[in-house]
């Protein structure tokens, strides 16, 4: 009976396209997944569902692999597979959802800064980039979020940073306490020491991190890359986040609290960012 029903639905919805399917379900997906589905419309928007095959999606997956790593591709295309299963199981728009293999995932190499390397790097950075790098090491905030922080997000009395959902990669807002050093980095606004701020001080929506009073859109700029070269360090800006998480765990902070501060939705995701060196652990307190 179910098979007959699916067959009838297939005949009824024979003209349904990938665009129709995306439009039907897109509101039920997370904003990050919505962006993936919208991206696929560039290729398959007007293609009939019955004409789409596993090789079609595999080719698109391989194309995406040219731009992002395998684990990211697999997460994004898992969303596409889930949508195709809904077309088959829930709507009856497909008799059988196409399938294809995942991409191979290679463990990405990250670099955890030592304190000696950190000192070497900071010496080479211009003042505005140095301030951003130090803030990243103190808070673990992603560079894309750092560049969009404004003073109205910071409560200097409580020393709390309220990051709205629209600038968070996760799409969820986050309120975090900041260290004394991070507080000083926030308050040490560009040219504040020589009264250069002028009337800007009354604009609470001004960016926290600026260069010549303009928002720093890309912290990992040429200045960052040249400083790395001079310091003889190979790393990505995102490795600062790995370094931050690893240092907190090594200092004995609860993994659950590190997970909260980093805005990770699961401990598994957080664990991908920590690269513990047992020699750095505070083992003495546990009798080792």
Describe it for me?
The protein is mainly α and about 290 residues long. Helices cover about 50% and strands about 5% of the residues. The chain has 13 helices and 5 strands. The strands form 2 sheets. Strands 1-2-3 form a 3-stranded antiparallel beta sheet, with no helix packed on it. It has a two-stranded antiparallel sheet with strand order 4-5. Helix 6 packs across helix 10, helix 7 packs antiparallel against helix 9 and helix 7 packs across helix 11. The longest helix has 22 residues. The protein is elongated, with a radius of gyration of 24 Å. It starts with a helix and ends in a 17-residue tail after the last helix.
Q: Could you name the key traits of this structure?
A:
288 residues; single chain; three-stranded antiparallel beta sheet
Can I get a quick summary?
With 288 residues, the protein is mainly α. It has 13 helices and five strands. The strands form two sheets. A three-stranded antiparallel beta sheet has the order 1-2-3, with no helix packed on it. It has a two-stranded antiparallel ribbon with strand order 4-5.
Radius of gyration: 24 Å
Low-pLDDT runs: 281-288
Widest beta sheet: strand line-up: 1-2-3
Structural class by helix and strand composition? mainly alpha
Query: Gap between N and C termini, in Å?
Result: 67 Å
Q: DSSP helix count? A: 13
Q: Helix fraction?
A: 40-55%
Shape, principal axes of CA atoms: elongated
Number of strands: 5
Mean pLDDT: 86
Order of helices and strands: HHHHHHHHEEEHEEHHHH
Query: What fraction of the residues are assigned to beta strands by DSSP?
Result: under 5%
Biggest sheet layout = 3 strands, antiparallel
């Amino acid at each position: 009976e179910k098979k007959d029903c699916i067959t009838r639905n297939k005949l009824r919805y024979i003209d349904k396209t990938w665009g129709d399917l995306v439009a039907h379900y897109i509101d039920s997906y997370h904003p990050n997944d919505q962006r993936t589905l919208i991206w696929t419309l560039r290729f398959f928007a007007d293609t009939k569902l019955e004409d789409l095959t596993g090789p079609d999606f595999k080719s698109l997956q391989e194309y995406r692999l040219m731009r992002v790593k395998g684990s990211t591709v697999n997460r994004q295309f898992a969303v596409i597979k889930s949508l195709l299963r809904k077309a088959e199981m829930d709507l009856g728009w497909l008799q059988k959802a196409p399938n294809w293999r995942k991409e191979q995932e290679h463990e990405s190499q990250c670099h955890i800064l030592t304190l000696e390397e950190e000192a070497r790097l900071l010496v080479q950075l211009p003042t505005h980039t140095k301030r951003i790098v130090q803030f990243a090491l103190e808070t673990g905030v992603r560079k894309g979020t750092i560049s969009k922080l404004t003073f109205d997000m910071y409560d200097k009395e409580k020393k709390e940073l309220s990051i709205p959902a629209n600038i968070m990669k996760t799409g969820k807002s986050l309120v975090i306490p900041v260290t004394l050093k991070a507080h000083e980095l926030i308050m040490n606004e560009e040219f504040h020491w020589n009264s250069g701020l002028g009337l800007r001080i009354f604009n609470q929506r001004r960016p926290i991190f600026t260069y010549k009073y303009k928002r720093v859109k890309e912290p990992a700029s040429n200045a960052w890359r040249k400083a790395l070269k001079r310091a003889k360090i190979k790393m990505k800006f995102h490795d600062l986040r790995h370094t931050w998480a690893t240092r907190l765990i090594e200092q004995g902070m609860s993994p659950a609290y590190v997970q909260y501060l980093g805005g990770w939705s699961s401990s598994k995701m957080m664990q991908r960012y920590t690269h513990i060196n047992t020699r750095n652990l505070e083992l003495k307190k546990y009798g080792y």
